């Protein structure tokens, strides 16, 4: 899978531009605040219909305009696919091959991406919400039913929390009905996550072992507020905990257990990675990203597009080499950087673009 062309209209500081890419490596060079990250964000947005930098869609629209349009031509094994997103104050319209998609899960997964940005280094020591977001983005791309189950879970969770906040007297029979629905969708969400984490750990450990010269092993632990030994136990255990915590939930007016409280823990040689060195953190995140690429390929049959947003300067020459070695020849890659000076072992097949004040100029071809 690779994106052949992208067009942006009124996207952040891009008024109206288009660019054609190499199926291998594409490097965006420019000073800070010129629009390099905006361009990568646009590719990410075309894939996932959301930004990795903001939840406020209006920030994506050029300050003097009312809507934004992003389109791209994607080449996959079975032919070309055209993607379009139009975003305005009336909402967003997503199209695949010019046909409007009614559901988000019908659109997401058509074009898969793996993003590696400096903020990913916070995945280990940052808040649990960052790790849940990591799970949701990856799982959503390779398993559309996950997005549907998660959306249904969040809908019932919001309904339950609103009822707990607004009811003058809680009807426990009604709460029991909500609990059944919450356990139905929530247990499915946790099953998806459990299976994904098992597969991710296996693949990431291989990469981490290689990067560490076979001196370190990586483990990933799923920290759920619903304890279980087998997936078949999740739904019943969820219901038991909801009943047990009912008085707590009524008093605090929120739901204390469920996948919205999930977290992950990373271990290097059985030591919590929180206590690891900066170099170990970089190797761990690098291993996760390389594992994501392989997992997406194994499930979808296509390699994802890799977006490296100003991370090469964060990696020493050794880890840069391991990253570039780990990228398959048929993984289309986009790199943003202020200079080529710190990049090592770049392949011959690449395109270099200069980005300046919302313009993009191709400097060299394949």
TrEMBL record:
Keywords: ATP-binding, Cytoplasm, DNA damage, DNA repair, DNA replication, DNA-binding, Nucleotide-binding, SOS response. The keyword DNA damage applies. Residues 3-359 form the RecF/RecN/SMC N-terminal domain. GO terms for biological process: DNA replication; DNA synthesis involved in DNA repair; double-strand break repair; SOS response. InterPro entries: DNA-binding_RecF, DNA-binding_RecF_CS, P-loop_NTPase, RecF/RecN/SMC_N, RecF_2. It comes from the Bacteria. One of its GO terms (cellular component) is cytoplasm. SUPFAM superfamilies: P-loop containing nucleoside triphosphate hydrolases. ATP binds at residues 30-37. GO terms for molecular function: ATP binding; single-stranded DNA binding. It is found in: Cytoplasm. Belongs to the RecF family. The RecF protein is involved in DNA metabolism; it is required for DNA replication and normal SOS inducibility. RecF binds preferentially to single-stranded, linear DNA. It also seems to bind ATP. This is DNA replication and repair protein RecF. The gene is recF.
